[in-house]
Specification:
Layout: H1 2-14, H2 29-38, H3 52-56, H4 59-71, E1 80-86, E2 93-98, H5 101-118, H6 135-146, E3 153-158, H7 162-165, H8 168-175, H9 182-192, E4 196-198, E5 201-203, H10 216-239, E6 244-249, E7 252-257, H11 260-276, E8 287-290, H12 299-302, E9 311-313, E10 316-322, E11 328-334, H13 336-353, H14 358-376, H15 382-400, H16 411-420
Parallel strand pairs: 1-4
Antiparallel strand pairs: 1-2, 3-7, 3-8, 4-5, 6-7, 9-10, 10-11
Helix pairs in contact: 1-5, 2-5, 8-10, 13-14, 13-15
Length: 443
């Protein structure tokens, strides 16, 4: 399958107007077995209650039966099991869709085909859920853009419940720009309309792509590629009086402008554009702001996030600050919302697992902290990461003392304990200024 996908990707790159007519044969026995091998065995089971381990029993027969059903068009995806997970920094919960195991395999194979084709079409400004394009890459490009001398205004856009409001008809029309294989189109349509089961009750799914499915990220990217990316690049950007850029990670988007009138006009046109495709912005979270580059008021600089010149993107608050030479530039630190949410998750984990054998407990604790440090350990954010580790140490001291009725530690003993089981030290893991992307879009 890898060889075939490489050929498809090459054809898509060389012939941008090519429409693919025969792709369904790529979802064969070998492809399904490869997707099974790649599947995470810790993933939750869908409505079929089948896990990877259970599906592996008599694997050959099950895969062969699945492929036969697909060939005679008898395969129909089962409804997606909907659960709710906590939304960091909020009392709200995020809906998550869990497909049946068999459907995960087919979706995974389908996603590979879609990625091979659309990776050649997606623009440089798009980063979410794409190969070799992570959050740090998006932050590097954004940093290069907002620190351009001529960029003064930001439109910080938040699309309201994007994955729940994707219009199926529009999405299928977008897919047909590149794919006209009726079997693939039928498969996508069946996945979109497979329905949802929540608390034992089945509901239809006339719109949206359930978050959690293997296909949802690529389908979401296709939708926004045509709705936002191409429109901004090919249409709106050409109308601007000054410079204009965008950086998008999935449905999280930041637009950058040289002039205020361009930003204000864009805000109005963006609302109309999204409305045409059954989407809308969360007005309370979408705003136009000045970066404050021309503001000489020291209060707007020294405090980091004072005034109305800061915005959040990918878990960081971006604000106007000063470098070591006293020059103004945009800096970043962990957003308060993400900081509090991460600290709360850490506190709950410590509380629930404090009676684990101490060696295992500290090993797992450090793995969690290392993950946090590697993501948030970026240029300018050393103090916030250091404060986070300090606060985790305080929580650790409190709950390890509650392993029994008598206190196990005073601060002296706890510091000796940390010498044996040290917490990670804050350091800069990612230098945002070292722009390794070489993006022509941002230049």
């Amino acid at each position: 399958m890898e060889t075939n996908l490489a050929r498809i990707a090459e054809a898509a790159r060389k012939r941008p107007n090519e429409k693919f007519t025969s792709l369904a044969h790529l979802i064969n026995k070998e492809a399904i077995k490869e997707c099974h091998k790649e599947m995470n065995n810790k993933k939750a089971a869908g409505v079929d209650e089948v896990t990877k381990e259970e599906y592996e029993k008599d694997l050959e027969f099950k895969v062969e039966d699945l492929v036969k059903r697909m060939k005679r068009q008898a395969y129909k995806p089962q409804p997606v099991k909907r659960v709710y997970i906590p939304k960091p920094g909020s009392k709200k919960k995020r809906p998550l869709g869990i497909p049946a195991y068999e459907d995960k395999l087919v979706q995974s194979a389908l996603a590979k085909i879609l990625n091979a084709i659309y990776e050649q079409d997606f623009l440089e400004c798009s980063f979410g859920f794409r190969p070799n394009r992570g959050c740090h890459d998006a932050l590097k490009v954004l940093d290069k853009i907002v620190n351009k001398r001529e960029i003064n205004y930001i439109v910080d856009a938040d699309i309201k419940a994007f994955f729940d409001n994707v219009d199926h008809e529009w999405l299928m029309r977008f897919v047909q720009h590149r794919i006209i294989d009726p079997n693939i189109l039928r498969l996508i349509s069946r996945f979109l309309r497979s329905g949802i089961i929540e608390a034992g009750i089945e509901y239809e799914s006339p719109e949206g792509t359930p978050q959690g499915g293997c296909c949802s990220p690529i389908l979401g990217n296709i939708y926004l590629h045509y709705v936002l990316d191409l429109w901004f690049e090919k249409v709106y950007r050409k109308k601007c009086r000054g410079k204009a850029y965008m950086v998008r990670y999935a449905d999280d988007v930041v637009f950058c402008f040289q002039y205020k009138e361009d930003a204000e006009a864009f805000y109005k046109e963006m609302i109309e554009r999204l409305g045409k495709f059954k989407l809308e912005v969360a007005e309370e979270k979408t705003k136009i702001l000045s970066l404050g580059k021309e503001d000489n008021d020291e209060d707007n600089i020294a405090g980091g996030c004072k005034g109305n010149n800061s915005f959040d993107f990918l878990g960081f608050t971006h604000y106007m600050g000063k470098d070591k030479n006293g020059s103004k530039r945009i800096k970043r630190k962990t957003s308060k919302k993400k900081y509090r949410a991460s600290l709360l998750r850490c506190k709950l984990w410590i509380k629930m697992n404090r009676n684990m054998p101490i060696k295992d407990f500290m090993q797992k604790m450090n793995i969690k902290l290392q993950g946090y440090c590697r993501y948030y350990g970026v240029t300018d954010n050393l103090n916030a990461v250091s404060n986070f580790i300090y606060e985790v140490g305080r929580i650790l001291y409190k709950w390890l003392n509650r392993r029994s009725q008598c206190k196990s530690f005073n601060w002296g003993k706890f510091n000796l304990f940390l010498k044996k089981y040290p917490l990670p030290k804050a350091k800069t893991h990612v230098r945002i200024f070292d722009l390794g992307m070489g993006s022509s879009y941002a230049m």
